[in-house]
TrEMBL record:
Keywords: Hydrolase, Metal-binding, Nucleotide metabolism, Zinc. InterPro entries: A_deaminase_dom, ADE, Ado/ade_deaminase, Metal_Hydrolase. Its cofactor is Zn(2+). It comes from Kriegella aquimaris. Coiled coil: none annotated. This is Adenine deaminase. It catalyses: adenine + H2O + H(+) = hypoxanthine + NH4(+). GO terms for molecular function: adenine deaminase activity; zinc ion binding.
Length: 353
């Protein structure tokens, strides 16, 4: 018996030495900013294109991957929409979503709140039902087989007009039970949130929660519009809020979460270097920030790679990583008891690692 405390101490001290990489890999996390079309890995894209008898503009996977160099959001979006155009059948949407779920399962992601862009598909003649049935079926399988809980968020493409967004909202109504919220994505500059105020009013009337991409490339005024006009309860990106002191105070006071995407910001030249990423400045100002992957197949990393990249560039401590993991659940749409349960698990993980 006398040896037990000694063994325990040794064990404890050894475990405390785990690298930041392992610490990130093992901690439970939630992903709140993820475009399912942005998880389309080149290998799967070629497989699905082949079975649908479609041609991709690149001769092979390597040639396609070489094209993944972007100077801004629009250059990325052009390739992203082209890639999504090989998705035709319900099974294609299932396979896409299932590939993402199995990938994040390996990364200890326990909860996901994912975007889909119906207009990217309905504008090519694919029916709304085909898209949502494939995605939802894979998410349900992920919950049943892997225990990953989920919410689905339908995004309107902001480069399209208001009437197209209204039509999409109409198509979503029979699937209200499956769709928790609506969001706003695509080309930001020149397409302010105010363009969609009426659509979001109707969405709220119908019971959807609201989020919007704002302040990724666009100005801080777009974040104000997202909050004041679209009544968002979470801001996607929000990097540019730091330009406006009053806005920062508002976001901090109301604890409106920001879903940050570090590798996306780097690849789209929103930041020149991860060392200049605003994450830590935002944490110091008491903003409820989370780490997410956005479009992992295009930006070189899923959740753990995003956490690790900022941890290394900004020298994050384990305590800060724990804070980010806790924030990801706090900012999620899980219930209070679900949040409390996972917070305890994260705290226990911290104590043991
Ligand atoms: N759609 C997919 N990824 C996006 C991003 N980072 N910003 C805006 N729209 C997007
Ligand atoms: Zn995004």
């Amino acid at each position: 018996m006398a040896a037990l405390p000694f063994i325990k101490f040794k064990e404890h001290s050894r475990m405390k030495d785990i690298s930041i990489e392992k610490f990130i890999a093992g901690i439970p996390k939630a992903e709140l900013h993820l475009h399912i079309e942005g998880t389309f890995e080149p290998e799967l894209m070629f497989t699905i294109a082949r079975r649908n008898n479609l041609k991709i503009n690149y001769s092979n996977v390597d040639a396609l991957k070489k094209a993944y160099r972007f100077n801004n959001l629009q250059e990325f979006l052009d390739i992203y929409y082209a890639g999504a155009s090989v998705l035709i059948h319900e099974q294609d949407f299932y396979d896409l979503t299932w590939a993402y779920i199995t990938k994040v399962n390996e990364q200890n992601v326990k909860h996901v709140e994912i975007f889909f862009d119906p207009q990217t598909h309905t504008n090519r003649g694919i029916s709304f039902d085909v898209v949502i049935n494939g995605i939802q079926r894979a998410l349900i399988d992920g919950q049943r087989k892997l225990g990953i809980s989920f919410r689905l968020i339908m995004c309107f493409l902001r480069h399209l007009d208001e009437s197209s967004a209204f039509k999409t909202l109409e198509q979503a109504l029979p699937y209200k039970k499956w769709i928790s919220g609506v969001g706003l994505d695509s080309s930001e500059v020149g397409n302010p949130p105010s363009k969609f105020q009426k659509v979001f009013e109707k969405a709220i009337e119908e019971g959807f929660l609201t989020v919007a991409h704002a302040g990724e490339e666009g100005p801080s005024s777009y974040i104000w519009e997202a909050i004041d006009l679209l009544k968002v309860i979470r801001v996607d990106h929000g990097n540019r809020c730091l330009d406006d002191d009053i806005l920062v105070k508002k976001l901090a006071n109301l604890q409106i979460p920001l879903t940050l995407c570090p590798l996306s910001n780097l690849e789209l030249k929103v930041v020149p270097d991860l060392k200049e990423h605003p994450l830590v400045k935002m944490m110091e100002r008491n903003l409820l920030v989370t780490i997410n992957s956005d479009d992992p197949a295009y930006f070189g990393g899923y959740m753990n790679e995003n956490y690790l990249a900022v941890a290394q560039a900004l020298h994050l401590s384990k305590k800060q990583i724990v804070q980010l993991a806790k924030n990801s659940f706090e900012a999620s749409w899980l219930s209070k008891p679900e949040k409390q349960k996972i917070m305890l698990q994260i705290e226990e993980y911290f104590q043991n690692n």
